[in-house]
Design goal:
There is one protein chain. The chain has 332 residues and is of the alpha/beta class. It folds into 2 domains: 37-162 and 263-330, Alpha/Beta hydrolase fold, catalytic domain (Rossmann fold); 166-255, no CATH class. It has helices at residues 2-31, 75-78, 104-117, 132-142, 158-161, 166-187, 190-199, 204-214, 219-227, 235-241, 245-256, 258-266, 286-298, 314-317, 319-330; strands at 37-40, 45-51, 57-61, 83-87, 124-129, 147-153, 276-280, 302-306.
C-alpha cells in the first residue's frame, strides 16, 4: 500500500511538473514574444531580428548554445551605419526545433534560405562568435561571392575538435549526456522552477540542479555573470529560452556533431580574396592562435587582434571593439 501511495505521489508530482512547464511556456510566449519575426524556411521557422535601414548587410552568427540576444550590445550600434540581421539557429532562442542534424551544410542552407526570404542580399559582412566561426568559414568557402568580409570573435579552433583526443571525447560525451538530462528535467518543469528560484535569490536547489545538468554547481554563477553584461530587459528572455527542453536538445545535437563540423571547417579554407579579422581572447591557447594566424595570413587582408583585457565573450566585454572591426569593412 505504501508503494502504491508513493508511486501515486510521484505520478502527481510529474504531472504537476509537466503542467507547470506547459503553463510557463505559454506565459513566456505571451510575455516575451520574438524580438524579430518567425520565417518559414521549409518545415520549420527560424527567428530573424533585423535592425538598420541603410548600408551593407551585416549577419551575426552566435555561439554554440547562444541566440540572437547575445548580440544586443553590438547589433544596435552597427545598425546605425548598416542593415543588420541576427538570428536563432534551429532549436535555439525563438526558432523551431528541426529533425535535421545541424551540420555546417544544413546550418548554412537554412541561413541562406532565411536571408533570401527576408530580402537581404549579399555580399555580407559576416560576424561570428565561437562555434559560429565554423559556420562563417564553411559559408565563405562554399559561397565566396556572398561574403564581403569576416569578423571572427574568438572563434572556436577547428583543430581542437576535428580529431578529439580521449580527454576531448569524454568532454563531448559528458556534455551530450548532461544536455539530454537537462532536457528531461526541463520537460518536467524542474529547470524553470530552479531558474525562478535563482532569479529570486535562492542558491541551494539551483546549484544542485546545475550540477546535475552541467556538471558544475558554479555554472549558474558563470552564466549569470555573462548574461548580466547584456541589457537588463534581455535577462528574462534568456532565462525563458533555457527553461525549454528544445534548447537542451539543440545543445546536445551541436555537441554530437562538433567533431564532424570541425573537420568540415578545416577542409573548407576561406578564399584569400575575402578579408578576415580575428579578435582573440587574452587566454587563447597556442594551438588556437596558430590556427588564427594561418587563417589571417591566407587572406590578402587578414589580421589578428588579441584582446588583452577580455575573455571568450568579447562582444559582451568589449562590444565597441567588435563594432570598430565591422565599421572598417562597412566603408563608413
Amino acid at each position: 500500500m505504501m508503494l502504491v501511495s508513493a508511486a501515486l505521489i510521484i505520478l502527481l508530482i510529474a504531472i504537476g511538473g509537466i503542467l507547470f512547464e506547459i503553463a510557463g511556456e505559454a506565459w513566456d510566449s505571451w510575455r516575451w514574444p520574438p524580438t524579430g519575426a518567425l520565417q518559414e524556411i521549409g518545415g520549420h521557422r527560424l527567428h530573424i531580428d533585423r535592425e538598420g535601414e541603410r548600408g551593407p548587410v551585416v549577419v551575426f552568427e552566435s555561439g554554440i548554445a547562444a541566440s540572437s540576444l547575445s548580440w544586443k550590445l553590438v547589433q544596435p550600434r552597427v545598425a546605425e551605419f548598416a542593415r543588420t540581421c541576427s538570428y536563432d539557429r534551429a532549436g535555439l532562442g525563438w526558432s523551431d526545433a528541426s529533425r535535421t542534424p545541424p551540420s555546417l551544410a544544413v546550418i548554412v542552407r537554412d541561413l541562406r534560405a532565411l536571408l533570401s526570404g527576408a530580402g537581404l542580399p549579399g555580399p555580407y559582412i559576416f560576424v561570428a562568435h565561437s562555434f559560429g566561426g565554423l559556420v562563417a568559414r564553411w559559408y565563405a568557402s562554399h559561397y565566396p561571392e556572398e561574403i564581403a568580409a569576416l569578423v571572427l570573435v574568438d572563434p572556436l579552433a577547428a583543430c581542437e575538435w576535428a580529431h578529439p583526443d580521449g580527454v576531448h571525447k569524454r568532454m563531448l560525451a559528458r556534455g551530450v549526456h548532461l544536455s539530454r538530462r537537462g532536457k528531461l528535467l526541463a520537460r518536467f518543469g524542474v529547470v524553470r522552477f530552479c531558474l525562478d528560484l535563482a532569479m529570486a535569490g535562492a542558491r541551494g536547489l539551483p546549484k544542485l540542479v546545475a550540477k546535475l545538468t552541467s556538471g558544475g554547481a558554479n555554472t549558474p554563477d558563470k552564466m549569470t555573470g555573462e548574461i548580466r553584461k547584456l541589457p537588463r530587459e534581455v535577462w528574462p528572455m534568456v532565462k525563458s529560452h533555457w527553461c525549454r527542453p528544445k534548447c537542451f536538445e539543440a545543445m546536445a545535437r551541436h555537441l554530437e556533431l562538433l567533431p564532424g563540423n570541425s573537420e568540415a571547417a578545416l577542409a573548407a579554407p576561406v578564399p584569400e580574396a575575402i578579408p578576415v579579422t580575428v579578435l582573440a581572447a587574452f587566454d587563447c591557447a597556442e594551438a588556437r592562435l596558430r590556427e588564427y594566424d594561418e587563417m589571417t595570413k591566407r587572406s590578402r587582408a587578414g589580421r589578428q587582434i588579441q584582446m588583452k583585457d577580455c575573455g571568450h565573450w568579447i562582444h559582451l566585454d568589449r562590444p565597441e571593439a567588435v563594432v570598430a572591426a565591422i565599421r572598417e569593412f562597412a566603408g563608413v
